[in-house]
C-alpha cells in the first residue's frame, strides 16, 4: 500500500477503536449503575425482570457481579478509547494486557465448568447454603428474592429443604418456609410429609442447559470481540513505532 493508503487505514482503525471502546465504556457505566440499583433495591429489579432474574439473584449476588464487571469494562473502555485517541503505546499495551488476562480467565473458567462440572456445583453449594441459612428470614431483600423464586419456579432451597436445617428461619419458626410444601400445610417434621419440592439449583441448571446454545453463542461472540480488540490494539501499537 502507498503511504497515504496506509495512513488512511491507520486512521480508520484508530477511529473504530475509539468508537468501540467508547461503547464498552458506556456499557460498563450502565452495568455499574444497574449493579448499584440491584444492591440498593433488589425487589424492584425482580418486579421488572421477573422470575429469571430472581433465579439468578438467589444463586449469585448479581449486584456485586454487575458492579465488578461494570468497573472492569469502564477501565477497559477508558484504556482503549483514550489510548487510541492519544496514540499512547503505554495505554494500548495496558489495554491489550487487561483483555488478554480476562480472555485467559474466561477460557480457564469454561474448561473448569466443562471438565469439573460436579466440583463446580459442590463449591457453589458450599458457598450459597451457609448464606441461605444465615440471611433467609433476616434480610428482607434476600428473603423476597428466594420466596419469589421458590413460588414461581416451584422449588425449595438450593439443593432441597434440608438447606434450611439449623437456619435462622427454622430455629425461629420451627418449620420450613411455606413454599417448600407445595399445596400441603407446613409441618415441623420433614418425614411426616412427602410433598417437599426439589431444590432450585436443579431447576436453574435445567434452564441453563435448555439455553446452552444461546449461552455458547454469546460466549463465542464475546471471545471473538476480545481477540479482535487485542489484534487491533497490537496493530495500532506496532504502527506507532513506524510513525
From TrEMBL:
It is found in: Lysosome membrane; Membrane. PROSITE patterns: TM4_1. The chain crosses the membrane at residues 12-38, 58-79, 91-116, 214-238. It is a multi-pass membrane protein. Keywords: Glycoprotein, Lysosome, Membrane, Transmembrane, Transmembrane helix. Pfam families: Tetraspanin. It comes from the Eukaryota. InterPro entries: Tetraspanin/Peripherin (IPR018499), Tetraspanin_animals (IPR000301), Tetraspanin_CS (IPR018503), Tetraspanin_EC2_sf (IPR008952). One of its GO terms (cellular component) is lysosomal membrane. PANTHER family: TETRASPANIN, TETRASPANIN-1. Belongs to the tetraspanin (TM4SF) family. Structural component of specialized membrane microdomains known as tetraspanin-enriched microdomains (TERMs), which act as platforms for receptor clustering and signaling. Participates thereby in diverse biological functions such as cell signal transduction, adhesion, migration and protein trafficking. Regulates neuronal differentiation in response to NGF by facilitating NGF-mediated activation of NTRK1/TRKA receptor tyrosine kinase and subsequent downstream signaling pathways. Plays a role in the inhibition of TNFalpha-induced apoptosis. Interacts with SLC19A2. Interacts with NTRK1/TRKA. This is Tetraspanin. It comes from Grallaria varia (variegated antpitta). The lineage of its organism: Eukaryota, Metazoa, Chordata, Craniata, Vertebrata.
Amino acid at each position: 500500500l502507498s503511504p497515504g493508503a496506509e495512513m488512511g487505514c491507520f486512521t480508520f482503525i484508530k477511529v473504530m477503536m475509539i468508537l468501540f471502546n467508547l461503547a464498552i465504556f458506556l456499557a460498563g457505566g450502565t452495568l455499574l449503575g444497574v449493579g448499584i440499583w440491584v444492591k440498593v433495591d433488589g425487589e424492584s429489579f425482580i418486579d421488572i425482570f421477573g422470575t429469571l432474574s430472581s433465579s439468578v439473584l438467589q444463586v449469585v449476588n448479581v449486584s456485586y457481579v454487575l458492579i465488578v464487571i461494570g468497573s472492569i469494562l469502564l477501565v477497559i473502555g477508558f484504556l482503549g478509547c483514550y489510548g487510541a485517541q492519544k496514540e499512547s503505546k503505554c495505554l494500548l499495551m495496558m489495554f491489550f494486557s487487561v483483555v488478554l488476562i480476562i480472555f485467559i480467565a474466561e477460557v480457564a473458567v469454561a474448561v473448569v465448568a466443562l471438565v469439573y462440572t460436579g466440583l463446580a456445583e459442590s463449591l457453589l453449594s458450599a458457598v450459597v447454603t451457609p448464606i441461605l441459612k444465615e440471611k433467609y428470614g433476616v434480610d428482607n431483600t434476600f428473603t423476597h428474592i428466594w420466596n419469589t423464586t421458590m413460588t414461581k419456579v416451584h422449588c425449595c432451597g438450593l439443593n432441597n429443604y434440608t438447606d434450611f436445617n439449623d437456619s435462622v428461619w427454622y430455629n425461629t419458626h420451627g418449620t420450613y418456609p411455606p413454599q417448600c410444601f407445595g399445596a400441603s400445610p407446613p409441618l415441623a417434621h420433614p418425614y411426616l410429609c412427602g410433598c417437599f419440592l426439589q431444590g432450585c439449583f436443579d431447576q436453574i441448571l435445567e434452564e441453563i442447559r435448555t439455553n446452552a446454545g444461546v449461552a455458547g453463542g454469546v460466549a463465542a461472540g464475546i471471545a471473538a470481540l476480545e481477540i479482535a480488540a487485542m489484534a487491533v490494539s497490537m496493530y495500532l501499537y506496532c504502527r506507532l513505532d513506524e510513525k
